[in-house]
Protein backbone atom coordinates (compact mmCIF):
# COMPACT_ATOMS: atom_id res chain seq x y z
CA UNK A 1 0.00 0.00 0.00
CA UNK A 2 1.31 3.43 -0.93
CA UNK A 3 2.43 5.64 1.92
CA UNK A 4 1.00 9.12 2.17
CA UNK A 5 2.48 12.33 3.54
CA UNK A 6 0.41 15.31 4.61
CA UNK A 7 1.04 18.46 6.65
CA UNK A 8 0.44 17.75 10.32
CA UNK A 9 -1.67 20.85 10.84
CA UNK A 10 -3.16 23.86 9.05
CA UNK A 11 -4.90 26.99 10.21
CA UNK A 12 -7.53 28.92 8.32
CA UNK A 13 -10.27 31.48 8.82
CA UNK A 14 -13.94 31.24 8.14
CA UNK A 15 -14.89 31.88 4.53
CA UNK A 16 -11.48 31.02 3.13
CA UNK A 17 -10.69 28.26 0.68
CA UNK A 18 -8.46 25.56 2.17
CA UNK A 19 -6.22 23.32 0.12
CA UNK A 20 -4.60 20.29 1.72
CA UNK A 21 -1.98 18.51 -0.33
CA UNK A 22 -1.04 14.88 0.07
CA UNK A 23 2.04 13.20 -1.38
CA UNK A 24 1.88 9.57 -2.48
CA UNK A 25 4.96 8.97 -4.61
CA UNK A 26 4.55 5.19 -4.71
CA UNK A 27 0.93 5.09 -5.83
CA UNK A 28 0.15 2.00 -7.90
CA UNK A 29 -1.74 1.88 -11.17
CA UNK A 30 -4.81 0.35 -9.53
CA UNK A 31 -4.87 2.70 -6.55
CA UNK A 32 -7.54 5.31 -5.92
CA UNK A 33 -7.18 8.36 -3.70
CA UNK A 34 -9.72 8.83 -0.96
CA UNK A 35 -10.15 11.56 1.64
CA UNK A 36 -11.88 11.16 4.98
CA UNK A 37 -12.82 13.67 7.66
CA UNK A 38 -12.81 12.87 11.37
CA UNK A 39 -14.19 14.87 14.28
CA UNK A 40 -13.00 14.11 17.83
CA UNK A 41 -14.44 10.89 19.28
CA UNK A 42 -16.25 10.02 16.06
CA UNK A 43 -15.60 7.62 13.22
CA UNK A 44 -14.19 9.01 9.95
CA UNK A 45 -16.57 10.23 7.27
CA UNK A 46 -15.99 9.81 3.53
CA UNK A 47 -15.44 13.10 1.71
CA UNK A 48 -14.34 12.37 -1.82
CA UNK A 49 -12.56 9.82 -3.99
CA UNK A 50 -10.78 10.07 -7.32
CA UNK A 51 -8.40 8.40 -9.72
CA UNK A 52 -7.12 11.23 -11.92
CA UNK A 53 -7.78 14.84 -12.98
CA UNK A 54 -10.50 16.56 -10.99
CA UNK A 55 -13.45 15.32 -9.00
CA UNK A 56 -16.04 17.60 -7.41
CA UNK A 57 -18.98 16.93 -5.15
CA UNK A 58 -21.18 19.06 -2.93
CA UNK A 59 -18.56 19.16 -0.19
CA UNK A 60 -15.14 19.40 -1.81
CA UNK A 61 -12.97 19.11 -4.89
CA UNK A 62 -10.09 16.77 -5.44
CA UNK A 63 -7.30 17.69 -7.83
CA UNK A 64 -4.96 14.97 -9.08
CA UNK A 65 -2.08 15.79 -11.45
CA UNK A 66 -1.21 13.56 -14.37
CA UNK A 67 1.59 11.72 -12.55
CA UNK A 68 -0.79 11.02 -9.61
CA UNK A 69 2.07 11.34 -7.12
CA UNK A 70 0.12 13.89 -5.15
CA UNK A 71 -3.40 15.12 -4.70
CA UNK A 72 -5.04 18.24 -3.26
CA UNK A 73 -8.26 18.37 -1.33
CA UNK A 74 -9.95 21.73 -1.74
CA UNK A 75 -12.57 22.91 0.74
CA UNK A 76 -14.38 26.03 -0.44
CA UNK A 77 -15.37 28.70 2.06
CA UNK A 78 -14.69 26.78 5.25
CA UNK A 79 -16.68 27.32 8.41
CA UNK A 80 -15.91 26.60 12.06
CA UNK A 81 -17.60 23.22 11.71
CA UNK A 82 -14.94 22.15 9.22
CA UNK A 83 -12.41 22.00 12.05
CA UNK A 84 -11.38 18.35 11.97
CA UNK A 85 -8.65 15.94 10.98
CA UNK A 86 -8.47 15.14 7.28
CA UNK A 87 -6.94 11.89 6.08
CA UNK A 88 -5.63 11.11 2.62
CA UNK A 89 -5.63 7.42 1.78
CA UNK A 90 -4.39 5.50 -1.22
CA UNK A 91 -5.57 2.00 -1.94
CA UNK A 92 -7.22 -0.40 -4.29
CA UNK A 93 -10.67 0.42 -5.57
CA UNK A 94 -11.67 -3.20 -5.13
CA UNK A 95 -14.38 -3.95 -2.66
CA UNK A 96 -13.03 -5.15 0.63
CA UNK A 97 -9.66 -3.54 0.11
CA UNK A 98 -8.14 -2.36 3.36
CA UNK A 99 -7.34 1.26 4.07
CA UNK A 100 -4.19 2.34 5.87
CA UNK A 101 -4.50 5.71 7.57
CA UNK A 102 -1.55 8.08 7.65
CA UNK A 103 -1.06 10.82 10.22
CA UNK A 104 -3.73 13.14 8.81
CA UNK A 105 -3.92 16.93 8.75
CA UNK A 106 -5.49 18.71 11.68
CA UNK A 107 -7.36 21.69 10.25
CA UNK A 108 -8.28 24.47 12.61
CA UNK A 109 -10.76 27.07 11.34
CA UNK A 110 -10.86 30.29 13.28
CA UNK A 111 -13.54 32.99 13.32
CA UNK B 1 -28.38 4.65 3.60
CA UNK B 2 -25.06 3.12 4.67
CA UNK B 3 -25.23 3.49 8.42
CA UNK B 4 -22.93 1.59 10.73
CA UNK B 5 -23.59 1.37 14.45
CA UNK B 6 -21.44 0.25 17.34
CA UNK B 7 -22.45 -0.95 20.76
CA UNK B 8 -21.61 0.04 23.37
CA UNK B 9 -20.51 3.60 22.72
CA UNK B 10 -18.37 3.55 25.83
CA UNK B 11 -17.44 0.92 28.37
CA UNK B 12 -15.45 0.90 31.58
CA UNK B 13 -14.21 -2.41 32.90
CA UNK B 14 -11.84 -3.86 35.45
CA UNK B 15 -8.48 -5.25 34.47
CA UNK B 16 -8.69 -8.93 33.55
CA UNK B 17 -12.24 -8.91 32.28
CA UNK B 18 -13.33 -9.40 28.67
CA UNK B 19 -15.29 -6.86 26.70
CA UNK B 20 -17.34 -7.44 23.56
CA UNK B 21 -17.96 -4.67 21.03
CA UNK B 22 -20.56 -5.05 18.32
CA UNK B 23 -20.46 -3.50 14.86
CA UNK B 24 -23.61 -3.56 12.75
CA UNK B 25 -24.40 -2.39 9.25
CA UNK B 26 -27.97 -1.19 9.66
CA UNK B 27 -29.20 -0.78 6.10
CA UNK B 28 -26.80 -2.73 3.93
CA UNK B 29 -24.95 -6.00 3.79
CA UNK B 30 -21.23 -6.03 4.44
CA UNK B 31 -19.15 -8.98 3.39
CA UNK B 32 -16.10 -7.29 4.80
CA UNK B 33 -15.73 -5.28 7.99
CA UNK B 34 -12.63 -3.73 9.46
CA UNK B 35 -11.57 -3.00 13.03
CA UNK B 36 -9.36 -0.06 13.95
CA UNK B 37 -7.89 1.26 17.17
CA UNK B 38 -7.11 4.90 17.81
CA UNK B 39 -5.12 6.37 20.68
CA UNK B 40 -5.50 10.04 21.67
CA UNK B 41 -4.13 12.46 19.09
CA UNK B 42 -3.07 9.57 16.88
CA UNK B 43 -4.28 8.16 13.61
CA UNK B 44 -6.43 5.09 13.15
CA UNK B 45 -4.51 1.83 13.21
CA UNK B 46 -5.99 -1.09 11.31
CA UNK B 47 -6.20 -4.13 13.56
CA UNK B 48 -7.90 -6.72 11.40
CA UNK B 49 -10.07 -7.44 8.39
CA UNK B 50 -13.19 -9.43 9.13
CA UNK B 51 -14.84 -11.48 6.39
CA UNK B 52 -18.28 -13.02 6.86
CA UNK B 53 -18.08 -16.73 7.43
CA UNK B 54 -14.31 -16.97 7.61
CA UNK B 55 -11.44 -16.23 9.96
CA UNK B 56 -10.32 -12.67 10.37
CA UNK B 57 -7.02 -11.48 8.96
CA UNK B 58 -4.94 -9.67 11.56
CA UNK B 59 -2.37 -6.97 10.92
CA UNK B 60 1.19 -7.54 12.00
CA UNK B 61 1.65 -7.08 15.73
CA UNK B 62 -2.02 -7.56 16.64
CA UNK B 63 -2.59 -10.57 18.89
CA UNK B 64 -5.39 -12.66 17.48
CA UNK B 65 -5.92 -14.49 20.77
CA UNK B 66 -6.38 -11.23 22.60
CA UNK B 67 -8.62 -9.53 20.07
CA UNK B 68 -11.17 -12.11 19.01
CA UNK B 69 -13.18 -11.23 15.93
CA UNK B 70 -16.34 -12.96 14.79
CA UNK B 71 -18.26 -12.07 11.62
CA UNK B 72 -21.19 -14.45 11.74
CA UNK B 73 -23.56 -12.58 9.47
CA UNK B 74 -23.52 -10.00 6.69
CA UNK B 75 -24.58 -7.29 9.12
CA UNK B 76 -22.72 -8.06 12.32
CA UNK B 77 -19.09 -8.31 13.38
CA UNK B 78 -17.91 -8.47 16.98
CA UNK B 79 -14.60 -7.67 18.58
CA UNK B 80 -13.87 -9.19 21.98
CA UNK B 81 -10.98 -7.81 23.97
CA UNK B 82 -10.00 -10.69 26.23
CA UNK B 83 -8.38 -10.21 29.62
CA UNK B 84 -8.29 -6.47 29.11
CA UNK B 85 -5.55 -4.40 30.69
CA UNK B 86 -5.13 -0.64 31.06
CA UNK B 87 -2.94 -0.48 27.95
CA UNK B 88 -5.92 -1.75 25.94
CA UNK B 89 -7.79 1.44 26.77
CA UNK B 90 -8.46 3.09 23.45
CA UNK B 91 -11.08 4.18 20.93
CA UNK B 92 -12.16 1.22 18.81
CA UNK B 93 -13.77 1.92 15.45
CA UNK B 94 -15.25 -0.45 12.93
CA UNK B 95 -16.02 0.08 9.27
CA UNK B 96 -17.99 -1.84 6.70
CA UNK B 97 -17.60 -2.22 2.98
CA UNK B 98 -20.91 -2.46 1.11
CA UNK B 99 -21.44 -5.76 -0.65
CA UNK B 100 -22.04 -5.58 -4.36
CA UNK B 101 -20.95 -2.02 -5.05
CA UNK B 102 -17.61 -2.96 -6.53
CA UNK B 103 -15.75 -0.18 -4.78
CA UNK B 104 -13.99 0.09 -1.46
CA UNK B 105 -15.80 3.02 0.11
CA UNK B 106 -15.94 2.20 3.77
CA UNK B 107 -18.61 3.39 6.16
CA UNK B 108 -17.41 3.92 9.69
CA UNK B 109 -19.16 3.37 12.97
CA UNK B 110 -19.22 6.03 15.69
CA UNK B 111 -16.57 4.25 17.74
CA UNK B 112 -16.44 2.65 21.18
CA UNK B 113 -14.42 4.20 23.98
CA UNK B 114 -12.90 1.45 26.15
CA UNK B 115 -11.43 2.32 29.52
CA UNK B 116 -9.77 -0.44 31.51
CA UNK B 117 -9.18 0.33 35.16
Structural description of this entry:
The complex is a heterodimer of chains A (111) and B (117). With 111 residues, chain A is mainly beta. Chain A has strands at 9-13, 18-23, 31-38, 45-50, 53-56, 61-64, 70-75, 84-92, 105-110. In chain A, 0% of the residues lie in helices and 49% in strands. In chain A, a hairpin with a 4-residue loop joins β5 (53-56) and β6. The model of chain A has no long low-confidence stretch (mean pLDDT 92). By secondary structure, chain B is an all-beta fold. Chain B has no helices and 11 strands. Chain B has strands at 4-7, 10-13, 19-25, 32-38, 44-51, 57-58, 67-73, 76-81, 90-97, 106-108, 112-116. In chain B, strands 2, 4, 5, 6, 9, 10 and 11 form a 7-stranded mixed β-sheet that branches. A 4-stranded antiparallel β-sheet of chain B has the order 1-3-8-7, with no helix packed on it. Chain B is globular and about 40 Å long. The mean pLDDT of chain B is 92.
Give the gist of this structure.
Chain A has strands spanning 9-13, 18-23, 31-38, 45-50, 53-56, 61-64, 70-75, 84-92, 105-110. Chain A is mainly β. In chain A, strands 1-9-8-3-4 form a 5-stranded mixed sheet, with no helix packed on it. A 4-stranded antiparallel sheet of chain A has the order 2-7-6-5, with no helix packed on it.
How do the helices and strands line up, and which of them pair or pack?
The complex is a heterodimer of chains A (111) and B (117).
Chain A: E1 9-13, E2 18-23, E3 31-38, E4 45-50, E5 53-56, E6 61-64, E7 70-75, E8 84-92, E9 105-110
Parallel strand pairs in A: 1-9
Antiparallel strand pairs in A: 2-7, 3-4, 3-8, 5-6, 6-7, 8-9
Chain B: E1 4-7, E2 10-13, E3 19-25, E4 32-38, E5 44-51, E6 57-58, E7 67-73, E8 76-81, E9 90-97, E10 106-108, E11 112-116
Amino acid sequence: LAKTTQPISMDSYEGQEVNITCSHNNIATNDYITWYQQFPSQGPRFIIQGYKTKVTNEVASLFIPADRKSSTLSLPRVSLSDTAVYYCLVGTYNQGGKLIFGQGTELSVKP
Amino acid sequence: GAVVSQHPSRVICKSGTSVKIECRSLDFQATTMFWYRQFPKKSLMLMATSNEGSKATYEQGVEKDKFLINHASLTLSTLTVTSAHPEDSSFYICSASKTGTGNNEQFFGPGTRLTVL
